From TrEMBL:
It comes from Gymnopilus junonius (Spectacular rustgill mushroom). Residues 228-240 have a biased composition (Basic and acidic residues). The chain crosses the membrane at residues 255-279. Keywords: Membrane, Signal, Transmembrane, Transmembrane helix. Residues 291-306, 315-325 have a biased composition (Polar residues). Residues 217-251, 290-325 are annotated as: Disordered. The keyword Transmembrane helix applies. The keyword Transmembrane helix applies. This is Uncharacterized protein. Residues 1-23 form the signal peptide.
Amino acid sequence: MSLLAGLPLRLFAFGVLVASAAALQFDFADVQQCDQVTVSFSGSNLAPGLVPASLQILPINSTAFNISLVEPSLVYSGVALTPLPFPAGTDFLTSLDDGTGDSIISVSDVIRVLPSPIGNSSCLPNATQVTRRFSLPFNVSQCEEFSIQYDTTLVSQPPNVRLYHPTGSSFPLNMVSSTVGEATYIMGFSREKDVLLLVTDENGNMETSPLFTVGGDANSDSSCLHKNNGEKTDDRTADMHHHHNGTPGPSNSRALIIGVASGGSAVVLIAIGVVIFVVRERRKRRRNQRYNFDSSKIQMPPSNDSLNEKHTSEKSPSITSPKAVSNPIYTSDAFVSPTRSTYQRGSLASTAQIVPGDRTRQTVPTSMPPSQIIVEPPAERGSLDSLDIEGMLNMATYSLRTLPAGKIRKPRSTI
């Protein structure tokens, strides 16, 4: 049962792994001030045709920079970077881009630089005032137009604006209009999402906006969300963008189907395991109920006092002889010890007389009730009755009288 109950959990975990391993993701270790940084990745390999070319480092509300990847295969084993010139407490994002500048995997989560355990600050630049080229907004609503102002002495053309969503997509925003020193764009991203804007001029100078949440409510315009927001956005980026805008792309649809199928199978197997468990418990409960008994109904054996009272009540109060038998199973005179011989004898003992001393063997009067009849046990075979002695004497006397006188031997004198 335990194996059956654990099976759905294993299948559910397998389904989660299938869904999560569908894309390569950032797996950052702790980043410390002025310490070497290793950018690691987790998940499956990149899709065919996607070649990483650069790694974007995007500090929030600061100056961004790009690190070229000379050997793209290092992505699978991790990319070692020189110490980042960020003081402790700086938050930043990273993005893995291809040769056209489009993200090929999801943007990293917000990463914060930790203080150096040894107080190392050798990588930090001198505290100089950095001139900002662009004036970036931080309060924009869904499908709402917003403007970016730029310094015409430093920037001659409207900049390119790219949106980054932590742990999500990255895509360029469409420019609606522009004038000298100002360009208008449309926020083609869902409300209540955190985003960061990267602005790049024609010379490659990059600045980031603060991390802000896209505004809006249920009545906000959503007509811009389903449109493609960039001329050079590839299928991978478009899929990510549509996914975060509420419209899943083909790859996300496959992952969603796999996840739903795995989750549904897990739910079914869990339900089957629960049903089997309940049925077994009910059978066990019924089987135990068959052997239940009430211990109060068990009759205790009678005590010695009750047995003595019972035996005393069964005795006849008029009988005191240890050889007497109460309530005999017979009452006929034929079973009483006879005063006369009832068998044939070859001597004068056949005419037996009643000896007065033997009157005690007479039968009990029949007028006595059956419960009062007393029967004495017969005499032992080894004893001689008075009738037998009398018969033997009579036989000896008769034999002497019938013998001739000459044949009678006299006893020899012993004197």
